[in-house]
Amino acid sequence: MGDQDLPGVLVSGLEGSYGICEDHVGDLQKHFNLITLQEFLENKTQFGPKIQAVYIWGGRPAIDQELLGSLPSLKIIASAGVGLDHLDLKLIASFGVKVANTPQAVSNPTADMGMALLLAAARRVVEGHMLASAPDTETFSTNWVGQEVTGATLGLIGMGSIGYKIAQRAKAFEMKVLYHNRRRRKLEEEEAVGATYCESLDDLLQRSDFVLLAVSLTPQTQRLIGKRELSLMKPTAILINIGRGLLVDQDALMEALQTGIIKGAALDVTYPEPLPRDHPLLKLSNVVLTPHLGSATHQARRRMMENLVQSILASVSGLPVPNEVLLK
Questions:
Q1: What range(s) does the D-isomer specific 2-hydroxyacid dehydrogenase catalytic domain occupy (predicted)?
Q2: Which end of the chain is more exposed for a tag (fewer CB within 10 A), N or C?
């Protein structure tokens, strides 16, 4: 607990795997009285009325009706990142509380990660590393090959800020870009990245060499890619997921990878995270897995923190909130 005269902000913790970024604590304490979840739970009567904001980092602390009901002065929930599937927006709004996130802070690094996974899967980078570093490797086969990226067709599912940044990068690789989105982009935006709109998801799946998921998780997009959708993809196609694990039916994906329905997959997200250590996905050589690294750069994490600070300060001052999430 810090300066009592500053606005009280609830955080998951100040250290450890489930706490806020330790490098940011000093900056945050310049603006806020940071109250950890443990401190709050041990003395709700003392701390509850002081908390004007909840600072969510890595999806924590969890927001539920009991917590909202015990924070009478709460004005805003500021959540790092762009995904909102961990928040019940209608419930939060019913308490008169605002929500803000950090979409612009994460778009570039997450787009970079999408392209990194695409390239790694296409060129079998992880397999290549294992081969090159294996103690029993004596020769490199000239017949050990991957997929070409330049000139290939990329199918983007989701064309928000992250999807559009990926399209910009794909253009530099001379890829043909198709996209499926709930709303079509403006013609000039499409032309700037050479993207073609596919009203039909099936059409995109059938035409793409790489299918990349950059869409938010909602009830409508849960298991968007299942057995039927995978069967529409080319047997040489690679699926990349940088959105949320539940966008894909993992059992169907396992089957598709094991039986040659698709060539490979690159996943920055799974369900759950991490996967159980005996999960069959961990044993497949045609899968690249990373531990949800989309926005994991020093620069992006600092921008996220700064964006959250701006949103909280605006809210407690009664000013318009930058990056406010509005109920649709």
A1: 25-325
A2: C
Active-site positions read 244, 273, 292
**Residue 249 carries which side chain, given as an amino acid letter?**
D
Based on the fold, state whether residues 270 and 224 are members of the same structural domain: yes
The number of distinct structural domains making up the chain is 2
Work out the number of other CB atoms within 10 angstroms of the CB of residue 199. 9
On average, the pLDDT of the chain sits at: 96
Both 284 and 317 in one domain: the answer is no
In the chain, the N- to C-terminal Cα span, in Å, equals: 36
Percent of the chain with pLDDT over 90: 97
How does pLDDT run across 265-299, given as a tens digit for each residue?
999 999 999 999 999 999 999 999 999 999 999 99
- Whether residue 3 is contained in a domain is answered as no
Q: Model-level pTM?
A: 0.93
Per-residue DSSP letters for 243-269?
S-GGGB-HHHHHHHHHHTSSSEEEES-
